[in-house]
Design a protein that fits this description.
This protein is an alpha+beta fold. The protein is 48% helix and 21% strand. Helix 12 packs across helix 14.
Length: 557
């Protein structure tokens, strides 16, 4: 063939194979197309493809032949059985170097190891074309001629170019496979994500919706796809701003929400709203924009945050309460110390006068000293009893021994116990008891103590000489015992705390009124131990009324 025709044939071969390779999606189809084109161009009768075995690195027959392979049974047999490592045979040489290898006559070429001595494989010349990819040689194409043929340098250059072009086909195939695997992995990640995935097209219609989105919003994938995203999962108050931002991004590339972590409300299919955290980003493929979002339901987090805030508020309240209790303790110690010290100083002073050289004191003066000592000793006794009683009440150990007892008897005994105290302040105690009152089933001693505490409170907070009234009347639920005074009264802010232990009103502290704030709390505990209640009403400047309500007497068995 003249040189010009030879060059034209090679160019035609290169163009034809290049076109075939461009249309090929995989190595096998590209290799077969190349085999056919080369055989046709050079007129050689047989072609074959070698591939790596995938484990040892040896090359083995792929089983793909073109041409009259049945006319070469021995070649077919030895080729099918061969395992050629890199460097062995002309196939191994091409695989090792990445360059085409030409053997003029395989019967005389020691590199062609498949030709056994004394055997005729039916071919002479052979040509090996490696398919070179970015990761190495992935196949070797082999061509055979019946005649010995000298190496054709032009053909080898064309073949080398084809080998690299075929390698690019393989690279594209690998890249496509990797992209598909990556896409599949991404789809799996998205589908199994604990967060909802929502994707919309440039028109705002949903085109992506994973299993978590189905559970979160209450819509199946089939129900969600194609629907406007804003009308599907957005409350109405967000929709205009979302549409404006999306339109601005498509027009200018600027957005106020893309790439930011947003906290807002989302809409379920039943119309209910719930808090979410959402991140939106945009992707562009084939000049088409897609908007994607991961949505996280933060209902539990908001609930936990609210619980933490409430716990913190409770802790702060507890701290404030502890500080208040600490201040109350200090005030209590100070008050108790004063309440103990004052009568003791009086008692000790009078004892000193009576026991050290004062036998000539008039009998009347001596008697006044003894009465004062007795009064202060009783004051100490009441203080000690109150302290012991409040400790019993606080520990829940108040023992009630109920028995039928008349209300009038309780009031008379309580008034008698308070007589010394009421006389010392010139108070007139008026008793008003209904003529017919049923007995109460109660602990007589405890009720007397409770009424006496109310009387003592009235004496302390009433102006000297003003009357104190003790009344008893029947009610629908039982019997009410009320103690009223005409003293200074209590403010609205003081009434809720008046039954607290150790509570003393500011006016009591300012006026240095005796007491440590236990009487009313003990009276309340006694009332509640009997199934009753105690309440207080007051008008500042006009006085106060404390009412003890006891239930009806229990019927005798």
């Amino acid at each position: 063939m003249p040189a010009g025709e030879r060059e034209a044939a090679l160019v035609a071969l290169l163009d034809g194979v290049t076109a075939a390779l461009s249309a090929s999606d995989d190595l096998e189809s590209a290799a077969r197309a190349t085999l056919r084109a080369v055989r046709k161009a050079i007129g050689w009768p047989l072609g074959h493809i070698w591939v790596p075995d995938g484990t040892s690195g040896c090359f083995v027959s792929s089983g793909a032949w073109t041409g009259a392979v049945k006319e070469f049974p021995l070649l077919y047999e030895v080729t099918t059985a061969a395992r050629l490592p890199p460097g062995a045979d002309i196939i191994g040489r091409a695989a090792a170097t990445g360059e085409p290898v030409w053997s003029r006559d395989v019967t005389r070429d020691p590199l062609f190891t498949r030709a056994r001595p004394g055997e005729e494989v039916g071919v002479r010349a052979t040509f090996a074309l490696p398919v070179v990819t970015t990761v190495g040689v992935t196949a070797v194409l082999e061509f055979f001629s019946r005649e010995a043929v000298a190496p054709d340098e032009s053909l080898m250059r064309v073949m080398a170019s084809l080998g690299h072009q075929m390698g690019r086909v393989v690279d594209r195939q690998h890249a496509r496979r990797e992209a598909e695997l990556a896409r599949h992995r991404l789809e799996q990640v998205i589908e199994t994500s604990v967060e909802a995935f929502v994707s919309v097209d440039a028109q705002g219609r949903i085109n992506g919706w994973n299993a978590t989105a189905e559970r979160m919003f209450g819509l199946t994938r089939q129900q969600a796809l194609g629907r406007p995203m804003d009308q599907t999962i957005m409350p109405a108050r967000y929709r205009d701003a979302y549409e404006e931002d999306r339109a601005q991004f498509l027009a200018t590339g600027r957005s106020q929400v893309l790439g930011r972590r947003l906290e807002l409300k989302a809409l379920r299919s039943d119309g209910s709203e719930f808090p979410i955290e959402m991140v939106i980003w945009a992707t562009c493929e084939a000049e088409t924009w897609t908007f994607n979002a991961f949505v996280h339901d933060i209902t539990d987090r908001r609930r936990a945050e609210r619980a933490l805030r409430e716990a913190y508020a409770q802790e702060q309240a507890a701290v404030a309460r502890l500080k208040e209790l600490d201040r109350t303790k200090d005030k209590f110690i100070e008050t108790v110390g004063h309440e103990l010290r004052t009568p003791l100083v009086s008692i000790l002073g009078y004892l000193e006068l009576l026991t050290f050289g004062n036998d000539d004191l008039p009998a009347g003066q001596r008697m006044r000293m003894l009465r004062a000592m007795t009064h202060n000793a009783m004051r100490l006794q009441r203080l000690v009893e109150d302290l012991l009683a409040v400790n019993t009440v606080a520990g829940g150990n108040l023992t009630v021994n109920p028995a039928p007892v008349g209300v009038g008897e309780i009031i008379d005994e309580a008034v008698q116990l308070a007589s010394a105290e009421t006389r010392s302040c010139d108070h007139r105690v008026q008793v008003d008891v209904d003529a017919v009152l049923p007995p109460v089933h109660a602990d007589r001693g405890l009720l007397v103590r409770a009424v006496n505490a109310l009387l003592s409170n009235a004496v302390k907070f009433s102006t000297t000489g003003t009357p104190i009234t003790v009344s008893a009347s029947a009610t629908d639920d039982g019997v009410a015992i009320a103690v009223s005074d005409a003293g200074a009264g209590l403010g609205a802010d003081e009434l809720p705390r008046v039954f607290d232990r150790f509570y003393r009103t500011p006016s009591a502290s300012a006026a240095a009124i005796q007491g440590i704030g236990l009487g009313l709390s003990i009276a309340k505990a006694i009332a509640e131990a009997h199934g009753g209640t105690i309440t207080a009403t007051s008008v500042p400047g006009q006085g106060s009324t404390f009412t003890l309500l006891l239930p009806h007497s229990r019927p005798e068995p």
